[in-house]
Structures
1.
Amino acid sequence: MTKSFDMALLLSGVLSGSQATQQRHLRQARFIQAAIQQRWQRDNPWTWQQKHLAWFLNYHMSQRSESTRYYYLLTIHLLTVRLGKSWQFKRKLTQGMMNGR
């Protein structure tokens, strides 16, 4: 049995803010980790590529609200900072936003 990657340890250097905010980022990072693990069998964030996080944000989260996707985008930003990557992610616009609503 292999031990799961410790997301709290990975993010401990970049987390700031209130305890509730830190816990939200950890919870969301673990959710991202589980989704990528299920789709690509990559449990360790050091092995992730930009396409994995882009898939998560644009397809796995596509049925979630704009605000939920925004909070996950913030968590993904923390992950990329911690991993030392310069990846940029853009949220796909919802149909309502494209029509000016």
2.
Amino acid sequence: MSAPETPAASSVLADLLALGRPIGDLRPWQAVEVGAAAWVAIAERLAAGEADLLALWGEPGAVRLALFDAATRRPALVRLSCPEGRYPSVGALHPPAIRPERAIRELVGLEPIGLPDGRPWLDHGRWGVRTPLGTPQPSSDTGEPYAFLKAEGEGLHQIPVGPVHAGIIEPGHFRFTANGETVVRLEERLGYVHRGLEGLMTGAPIAHAAMLAGRASGDSTVAYGIAFARAVEAAAGAEPPPRAVWLRALMAELERLANHLGDVGAICNDAAFALMHAHTAALRERVLRASAAAFGHRLMMDVIVPGGVVIDLRKDGSDAIRAVVGTVRTALPALVRLYDGTPSLQDRTVGTGRATAALVARFACGGPVGRGSGRDFDARRDLAYPPYDRLAFSVPVLTACDVDARVRVRLAEIEASLSMIDEILTGLPGGPVLAPVDITVAGEGIAVAEAFRGDVLAWVRLAGDGTVARCHLRDASWFQWPVLEAAIEGNIVADFPLLNKSFNCSYAGHDL
């Protein structure tokens, strides 16, 4: 589904961009340099809901803010120089910026003036260095206890969960304050999976940086590969071959299909309905095997690179994909009937974990979290990139805001992915799958791709010598984790695993 034509500039976006001086070193988005007063004015427009915050990050001497104007589906980037190492806090006016600003403070050393929450976020005092992406300073910290927010009231008690969990999952700490079984407050403590990806990518050869990007969150390796490759291609002025672009979309839909099948089953399993989990797990395994047959790797890791893809679709792989599409398409209606016809399951999912439409809109949540609460956004359509601008697909949007809505969005997206995979295989163009990219070009590029849990963003600056001068990756989870804290309030503690799985935020993609 192609994005509808829009005016050259919306009034909101035009007003915001008029506050600054155009800078031409970023492709393909518009970008402006602003002063402190204009930076605050933009934060006020974000707080008023006139634009969405896509990302906020820093580097030595500057902070950058990516925003999106939903009215005309146009993005832009704003840069503020910070020669004195400080800048007006966006989070003081727009809460979704608080956690990114806490990360900027620790990673780069830039101080957000007026930041409402000055506690550490990613840095647990175990790195041995402070501000590693700014001016590194040695640190001998052994870690200080985290100052969780206090909740006062009669009959309240706290339940600490994690960071080590019972299953084979990523680490994260959840501090529940409850009255009996009812959750009054949930506070998250993340950062345990911080690997310093942006530091590792700085100065890395582009090929190695692409591998690192694909490991930001392994379940979204295709989406990250697409976002990073498109950012590099934009910076270098390169175009991948048409066949490579279509193969990327094929891989993205296979990745979405496998993950949505896994999520639907896991949600049902957390509601004590293991039968659905067994069926979807078997289907997910078939999708992964077909992906391996087609592209040599179950997760299709390291297949997407700047310039195209490194592996063409194998003949037996094409047959395997068509076969698994038929299998899933045949099985899906019975699974939907099974879900609909199990009252004990509906009792657990319907009305549970409501993420209100207002909160989801404020945090610009993507993926099933956003679309299950009425936010009609999909990067494949709204920031349309090839070949999605030529594919026919629907974007399911529901308004119930609960676990059930998030399940139903996933089921609808499974159907949409099956149709797109058919369309891609039918219309797949011939020709090469890899084109040269001039890695001696110095420039900046930015791109967004739609992963199964929402939009991921990649910004990259090329050094001009075949290496990455700087890179920033942003997972959809950055803006979904805070909403999860609100969605559990008023629910019982025993429903948290169910609610948590319906969000399925990435720890690694957040912690980087």
3.
Amino acid sequence: MIYVEEILDRKTGELVSVDKGDWITITELATLLGLGRRQATTVLRHLDFLQIEGVGRESRHRSPPASA
């Protein structure tokens, strides 16, 4: 899915579309690979594309911070 953000150009007063790239969700990736969403999440976590933040029911899978 292509994501676009519309921002206001303060000089002209018009909305300008900024392309944020072509992204897919974990569920879309899982479907593409023939896996379930949880299996795809596990694979991405083992490949260090995701990390777990929080504890217990408050935990979430997030992208790790970009390393410089």
4.
Amino acid sequence: MVLPKSLQPAPADGVPFAADKAYQQLRDAILDGDIAPNRRLVEEELAASLEVSRTPVREALLRLAQEGLVARVRGWVVRDHSPEEALHIVVARAAVESAAARLAAERITDADLEQLTRIADAIDRPGSTAKELNRLNRQFHGLITAACGNPLLVQFAQRTNISHWSLSATWLMSAKDAAEVNAEHRQMIEALTQRDGSAVETLVRAHISRTQAILQTVISAA
């Protein structure tokens, strides 16, 4: 099995640290679509690619299984999501991330707001691929959620991430889509800057409902 180039060797700073790095790299590769749904994940091959033992790889896979990104089906496999399953995930994401955004308005730092602006600027740059836009979008929302200060909400939000492949099967973000999405991002930044929790909560929920509406259309047409 040829593994994606995004899987680089994990630092050899002990099993817990190596497991964290393996988890993050595998998670990013799955969410970005570098490792497609239904792909078999062999512990020995992953360990060789990351240059770690099988123990941190196994720990990383167990964490990913808890998030619903991989499953054990006669070995490890990247989970696929039907449009119906994706819809459930997106509905949950809207509830969790909007609640987190309301809390974030009270706690977000100036440094966080500057980073959100830099991400929004990067999304506006021409020439980005759908995969790159997907990653920037994930970083944007992840930063807001992390700023909420509630570890449980952050954990729940991680469970509502879904593979780029699962969404790109129904919708590929065009340049026009990206511009509209990012205009909403900038409205969120403004609401957070004004410490307006109610406004940013409403904005985030409406923003994620865009994907929800697309999935509902796909399901209705099936």
